[in-house]
Amino acid sequence: MSINEEKLNQLEQLQEEIKLGGGEKRIEIQHGKGKLTARERLNILLDEDSFEEFDKLVLLAGTEYNAEKVQAEAVVTGWGTIEGRPCYVFSQDFTVVGGSLSKPMGDKVIKIMDLALKNGVPVIGLNDGGGARIQEGVDSLASYGEIFLRNVLSSGVVPQISVVLGPAAGGAVYSPALTDFVFMSKASYMYVTGPDVVKTVTGEDVTHEELGGAMTHANRSGVCHFAIEGEEECLQEVRRLFSFLPLNNMEEPPIMETGDDPARRDEDLLHVLPDDVGRPYDMRELVYRIVDAGDLMEVHEHFAQNIIVGFARMMGKTVGIVGNQPLYNAGVLDIDSSRKGARFVRFCDAFNIPIITLVDVPGYLPGTSQEYGGIINHGAKLVYAYAEATVPKITIIIRKATGGAYDAMGSKHLRADVNLAWPTAEIAVMGPDAAVNIINRAELARAKNIDKTRAKLVAEYKRQFANPYVAASRGFIDDVIDPRETRPRIIRALKMLESKNDQMPPKKHGNLPL
Ligand code: HXC
């Protein structure tokens, strides 16, 4: 039997109807809110004509093909490429029942997540929906559970990226939370319960944006890694992030030719640090001068700004950068910066990305709010993350490396591979003033001129401890280097470590202090 025109027309018509999602009127409303449709978003995210759809013909729960007009379920799924490299995608369609999750819709998402895990290919989810479809009851909750399970099984095997471009309420927040990176656009918001419920339960008056907008999660909760105003720009940044990541945990990170000379010295590195050790400077300046072409993709840019984390390239290959940021709270380690640093280090370790750590840290932050908030446990996360990481680890102490923070920030003692210091490094148990107050208490009490005596004792302490040479004499620092040589020295170390093979002892899993 030949396939006649009527059959082909029928298929074409079906495809056209399905493509319209919730219909033209609802697409207009979506555009009116400044939002793109599920398919328009995929067109921006993926390489031109690379999208191949799965399950296009899954109909809206409760509808059938014999109806006058068919309607698709509230998600578009499939796979495509970004700069020629594959990824699986799902894109929720708000025009269909507000993008809420039904069982058939969940099944579509689950199908691509299973394929992603089997084939070692990342998943990118575009979220814009009202959470569990209320009229579906437990079937919807079951679908969420099945998605969460796959998020967890895939964690550390393939990179998972969530992009929130509209509401993500209730169950819809936990899948993004289980993924590696969360992007949010200006029009998006995420919360477990919305402003109405908040008002009823706690009496607080709060807007959608205040409660769960992109900036709320970017700088307060830390749920959002990238807050980007427009949808198009947001999706372009997802492409940029993708370019740094390997497809799975068995792959090396991709190499992109940057044209930057691996042997490049930088004279200006002699002038980044202010003469006064108490004055701040921007650690980013240093990073830009060291990495290929000054290109750093910061993660969590607005959160815990006292630490910088992000992706860059050296010899064209992805590296993870962790650096204390003296510009904010003197670069101190606190609860949020420890969490931020630890999460990033663990991602890099899971995906074979070498870690370069730039240290200038005055210690862990003292105070009741930190202690009551659990700085002991949160601070320990950073120690744990560095200690368990088996990827190449290179650490440069720029200025201060004080107290427990010296140990935490990629020290030799947590099995870093190459530890270097600038001649400006000061490695000590605590800062000179606090130290002198403790170890010279009696002498200070007896002193006739306390200021003069203190100044003398501080100078002596600095001479004895605040330098890199004691650590170098113990072998805790492999070398004290000319700052201008920082880039070529790191690159030589990366080359030397290309064959690194380190392991954790056999175990089911460790018990990270959560
Ligand atoms: C069914 C839903 C829906 C939902 C939205 N719609 N959310 N239908 N289940 N969860 C429908 C609306 O009825 C409406 O249909 C259409 O989608 C568009 O929604 P609007 O409300 O008109 O849009 P908007 O004003 O932009 O508001 C968006 C919204 C709001 C903020 C997301 O719709 C909302 O608050 N929805 C409910 C959010 C929520 O509480 N979800 C359940 C969470 S519980 P019509 O036909 O009228 O246009 C949960 C538990 C899971 O998720 C736990 C798993 C662990």
Amount of beta strand = 15-25%
Number of helices: 20
Q: What ions, cofactors and ligands are bound?
A: hexanoyl-coenzyme A
| CATH fold title of the largest domain | 2-enoyl-CoA Hydratase, Chain A, domain 1
Count of distinct strands = 16
The average pLDDT value, as a whole number, equals 95
Structural commentary:
The protein has 514 residues and is α/β, with parallel strands linked by helices. It has 3 domains: 3-244, 2-enoyl-CoA Hydratase, Chain A, domain 1 (Alpha-Beta Complex), CATH 3.90.226; 267-430 and 467-496, 2-enoyl-CoA Hydratase, Chain A, domain 1, CATH 3.90.226; 432-465, no CATH class. The chain has 20 helices and 16 strands. The strands form 2 sheets. Strands 1, 2, 3, 4, 5, 6, 7 and 8 form an 8-stranded mixed sheet that branches. Strands 9, 10, 11, 12, 13, 14, 15 and 16 form an 8-stranded mixed sheet that branches. Helix 4 (103-119) packs parallel to helix 5, helix 12 (335-350) runs parallel beside helix 14 (375-388) and helix 16 (432-439) crosses helix 18. The radius of gyration is 27 Å and the shape is elongated. The model has no long low-confidence stretch (mean pLDDT 95). The protein binds hexanoyl-coenzyme A. The site of hexanoyl-coenzyme A (HXC) has 17 residues, from helix 5 and strand 5.
